[in-house]
Amino acid sequence: MNSLSIIIPCYNEEAVLEMTYQALNSELKKLNREYEILFVNDGSKDRTFDIINDLSNRDTHVGGISLSRNFGKEGVLKAGLAHAKGDLIVVMDADLQDPPSLLHEMMRLIEEEGYDQVGTYRSSRKSQGIATRLFSEAYYRTFNFFSDVKVPINEREYRMMSRKVVNTILLFSEQNRYIKSLWSWVGFKTTHIGYEDIDRAAGKTKYNIKNKLKLAKHNILASSDKPLKFVGTFTVVFGVFLMVYTTYLVLTSNLTVNLIWAWLMWIQFMMLSVIADYVGKTYLESKHRPNYIITKSIESSMKVNK
């Protein structure tokens, strides 16, 4: 019977960890198999890792990892995947917006129907404001337009994977990564389960509009070179337009030529900013720095099975 590892990234989650553990542990006991709950502390400023340590003292199924600083979702996920011991590995958030009740169906799809990955997506965003819903819709459509691999709209990071999928993901060493696009890129037999939007059990979201925009830009540029190709194509097309229109302005002695040049220069600087981002990311990749650094580790009672 397949063993199960649950990876839970944590950043300042002291308000919800106990509730998450209780809800998850109750559901895992029903599955009647060996399991571990691996909390990964991403440089929290509160008592998150102290609570993880307390939980591990009470329950040997609980393990924990603490990173030296905040490495972000991609670093913390890679750390969790690298240290998970189970045959099946689940990634889920700490705030109970990912219902543990879906675990049984996810396991059935993998063990009985032969899937390697079972992802999830929000079938609605009723608890969110209209601005958040519109931003999310625009983000996924923009990402899929620019990326060669497609990510389902409203996809969550709540996912169950077979050991071979996880081992494949761990082969990727790049700094600039986006786990959702990697899940799509590696392939394997995949399906998704939809569920209604659920409010956080406690605490507040860590993402404001500034963080969301920064993350959206990172995810798109980290997953595809299409924006760079778009810049090249756009430059050629606009170069032709510029020659034709400038010739027209000269022949007609139209005095708005300076305004047109100013507008074109603004577009040029926008295009250069995209190129600069790619150059910066290439520079960071050339350093070959680790995706995360571990300062503390608590082992669960599960035996290593890789």
Blueprint (SSEs and pairs):
Elements: E1 4-10, H1 17-30, E2 35-41, H2 48-58, E3 62-67, H3 72-83, E4 88-91, H4 103-111, E5 117-122, H5 130-146, E6 155-162, H6 163-169, H7 179-186, E7 190-195, H8 209-223, H9 226-252, H10 257-286, E8 294-298
Parallel strand pairs: 1-2, 1-4, 2-3, 5-7
Antiparallel strand pairs: 3-8, 4-6, 5-6
Helix pairs in contact: 9-10
Describe this structure in words.
- The protein is α/β, with parallel strands linked by helices and 306 residues long.
- It has 2 domains: 4-129 and 151-207 and 294-298, Spore Coat Polysaccharide Biosynthesis Protein SpsA, Chain A; 223-286.
- Helices cover 49% and strands 16% of the residues.
- It has an 8-stranded mixed beta sheet with strand order 7-5-6-4-1-2-3-8, sandwiched between helices.
- Strand 2, helix 2 and strand 3 (62-67) form a beta-alpha-beta unit.
- Helix 9 runs antiparallel to helix 10 (257-286).
- It is elongated and about 85 Å long.
- It starts with a strand and ends in an 8-residue tail after the last strand.
Short description:
The protein has 306 residues and is α/β, with parallel strands linked by helices. The protein has 10 helices and 8 strands.
Structural class: alpha/beta
Largest beta sheet: strand ordering: 7-5-6-4-1-2-3-8
Distance between the termini: 14 Å
The largest β sheet comes out as: 8 strands, mixed
User: What percentage of residues falls in helices of 4 or more residues?
Assistant: 40-55%
**How much strand content do the residues show?**
15-25%
**What's the name of the CATH homologous superfamily of the largest domain?**
Spore Coat Polysaccharide Biosynthesis Protein SpsA, Chain A
* Count of DSSP strands: 8
Number of helices: 10
Mean pLDDT: 78
Count of structural domains: 2
Report the uncertain regions: none
- Secondary-structure element series: EHEHEHEHEHEHHEHHHE
Give the CATH class of the largest domain: Alpha Beta
CATH fold group of the largest domain: Spore Coat Polysaccharide Biosynthesis Protein SpsA, Chain A
What's the alpha carbon Rg, rounded to whole Å?
Answer: 23 Å
